[in-house]
């Protein structure tokens, strides 16, 4: 039986430009959320920006891929490596720029530049970021670019996991990248009434909504046999996944959470675990009214009362498609350091859960990481200490 392990992590967030700096800020209870006004036509909003201006998708991808390979002690070219890098918004910033240039002219005209509109359009297709990453490291194996709303990051890790389990690859770079701070994204979430006014407060009685954040995480997945042969450092083992869809609504979760519960049960069954085996849950915890209520209900329904729970979105903001990959990375760090990360931003809980408000040492062997995306995309991954 092929076991899949994680031997490298590349992560960048509003908390820090590396895995270690983001982790240290997180366990110190810090938040990368600040008030910003990156676009003059929109009012200031709390956002989780990595720099002073919105980041570029390609830049974030290059940084985390390079960091993950260095962390795993791998050197390109890697011809037999698979690449699975997803994004929910992908190159939307580029599309908005093209649209602005088109409609600025009277009558509207395609942008004129030395590269040509055709080249700009081709490079901004949703799958091109994954293809560019494969090209940059000389990977000629499978290349996938999942898009599953906020569940994208865990879906990407699941696809990489199955490439290894099926024998197609022994190494896969898997994760998600999000640079969602664009005028249209902000306007859309504002129109839905989903954006917070002052900050992100997951599971708090006075939570206001989500705060958009930039971020990226890729994991180096390997067969355990290969990792051991090359004496690689192992963060933890990827046990299994649960992936379902609500088939209910474009944005609201299914009342009662039947499909989300099914995803959790799938994951536990495939991992040969029971709810009482779980030492920590990294919750989706968006700080929206519906998500936090539904998620708290299903945790109370399925798990023993004392299981520690936290969401890191009060620190990183909601990085949309990348959020599950960030959550998996922070969960692996919890396994590595035996520290429970805090639910930053939580002051007064609305729910009867064992919510971690301050980081603390704990015995952590097995964790679950949840992602529940718009459109009812449910993704759950189980991770364990080796």
Automatic annotation (TrEMBL):
Its EC number is 2.3.1.179. SMART domains: PKS_KS. InterPro entries: Beta-ketoacyl_synthase, Ketoacyl_synth_C, Ketoacyl_synth_N, PKS_Beta-ketoAc_synthase_dom, Thiolase-like. The keyword Ribosomal protein does not apply. Belongs to the thiolase-like superfamily. Beta-ketoacyl-ACP synthases family. GO terms for molecular function: 3-oxoacyl-[acyl-carrier-protein] synthase activity. Residues 1-385 form the Ketosynthase family 3 (KS3) domain. Transmembrane segments: none annotated. The keyword Acyltransferase applies. NCBIfam families: PRK05952.1. Keywords: Acyltransferase, Transferase. This is Beta-ketoacyl-ACP synthase.
């Amino acid at each position: 039986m092929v076991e899949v392990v994680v031997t490298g992590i590349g992560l960048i967030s509003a908390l820090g430009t590396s895995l270690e700096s983001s982790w240290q800020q997180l366990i110190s209870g810090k938040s990368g959320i600040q008030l910003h006004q990156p676009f003059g036509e929109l009012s200031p909003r709390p956002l989780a920006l990595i720099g002073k201006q919105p980041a570029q998708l390609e830049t974030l991808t290059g940084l985390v891929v390079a960091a993950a390979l260095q962390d795993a002690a791998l050197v390109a070219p890697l011809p037999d490596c698979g690449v699975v890098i997803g994004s929910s918004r992908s190159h939307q910033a580029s599309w908005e720029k093209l649209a602005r240039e088109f409609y600025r002219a009277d009558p509207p005209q395609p942008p004129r530049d030395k590269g040509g509109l055709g080249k700009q359009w081709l490079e901004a297709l949703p799958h091109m970021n994954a293809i560019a990453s494969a090209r940059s490291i000389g990977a000629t194996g499978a290349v996938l670019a999942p898009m599953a709303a906020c569940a994208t990051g865990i879906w990407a890790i699941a696809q990489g996991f199955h490439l290894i389990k099926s024998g197609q690859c022994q190494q896969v770079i898997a994760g998600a990248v999000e640079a969602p701070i664009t005028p249209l994204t902000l306007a859309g979430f504002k129109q839905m009434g989903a954006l917070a006014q002052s900050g992100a407060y997951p599971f708090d009685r006075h939570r206001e909504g989500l705060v958009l954040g930039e971020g990226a995480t890729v994991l180096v997945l390997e067969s355990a046999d290969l990792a051991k042969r090359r004496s690689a450092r192992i963060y933890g083992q990827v046990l299994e996944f649960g992936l379902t869809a609500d088939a209910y609504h474009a944005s609201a979760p299914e009342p009662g959470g039947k499909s989300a519960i099914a995803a959790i049960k799938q994951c536990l069954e495939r991992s040969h675990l029971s709810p009482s085996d779980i030492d920590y849950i990294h919750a989706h915890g968006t700080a929206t009214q519906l998500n936090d209520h539904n998620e708290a209900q299903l945790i109370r329904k399925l798990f023993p009362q004392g299981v520690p729970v936290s969401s890191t979105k009060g620190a990183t903001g909601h990085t949309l498609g990348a959020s599950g990959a960030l959550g998996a990375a922070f969960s692996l760090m919890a396994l590595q350091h035996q520290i429970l990360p805090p639910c930053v931003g939580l002051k007064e809980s609305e729910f009867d859960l064992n919510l971690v408000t301050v980081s603390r040492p704990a015995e952590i062997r097995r964790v679950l990481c949840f992602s529940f995306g718009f459109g009812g995309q449910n993704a759950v991954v189980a991770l364990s200490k080796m």
